[in-house]
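Milestone M4 deliverable, item 7.
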Amino acid sequence: MISVIIIITSVYLILILSFSYGIIKKNVFGLERKPSIQTFSIIIPFRNEEIHLCELLNSLVKINYPKNKFECIFVNDESTDTSVKIIEEFLSKTALNFYVVNNLRTSSSPKKDAINTAIQTANFEWIVTTDADCTVPKYWLQLFDKFSKVNNSVMMVGPVSYNILNYSFLENFQLLDFLSLQAATLGGFGIKKPFLCNGANLAYKKTVFTKLNGFQGNENIASGDDIFLFEKFYEKYPCRVHFLKSNQAIVSTKAIKSWKELIQQRMRWAAKSSSYTLSRGKFVGIIVLLMNLAFIFCLLGLFYDQVNTRYYFYCMLLKFLVDFIVIKQIAIFYDSKRIKAYFLGSLLYPFFSSYVFFKSLTSSYTWKERVFKR
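Output delivered:
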């Protein structure tokens, strides 16, 4: 058993250090003040988001981009609260071009249907997606505009981070977990082996979306509006899908408020992983899972296998250190200065991650007050 754990740890270390190298290798893109050319349709699906909308709407109004070159399309996914009223009353007093449309359900995925519905009415070439519980940066569209021209992009993946308010252990745990995902996303692009993105900050050309038949082929999976579309774009245009590395392009989202909700969210993410088409995405997922299981065995081995105690300790220590290196590295880029509870979070994460994975194999999950089967 110890030899297997050593092999898993070695592969894991190489993988994480490659992400660290990729983060360093990927250049930061600076904002250039030049005339804006591209046009954007920002798509925001929502369902009962009245408590989050004001922050989002305030950030949309502050976007520094010609008002005639972008629009906001809000897609109402059967909301029963005052979300529609809040959007219409707030934005009707501004110069923002906006529309509120009702979601046209045609598949098992409400969010994919919402994006499809919005794209049918979108007036502009670039589609930009975000979520209703997010806030967007001031120079968001300017950066997409310049970056797309410089790189001849058909899809741009943007950075996403948590907006931490209370710095509770739950929030810090989520921040550490999310930073690790962002490190894998940016690091993957840096070594030219990308496999992740986040629909809270994603831009792509409408014409290419249509050409690739959009979400066709994975409508039966509730989530994955970002990953599956990314895989389609990358398979067809591997040299024209890029990561926008700029801390002025970071979209902020809210942390989950309870452990129960967090488990449901992570189950949703885990449920779609078996349907990835890029083999490296599955490979990374398997190695991370095996390393988490190995960590648990090591922790138990410290107490029940005195012969190999030092090997268990070294494997745990190496995982702890290499994870810290890459999380600290990505935290500097995201300006997340207060990384707390790392030690306790690192001990908990293997148990949390393993539990979520195995539970997602057999259980349904809840998303936006709806129950979805795997």
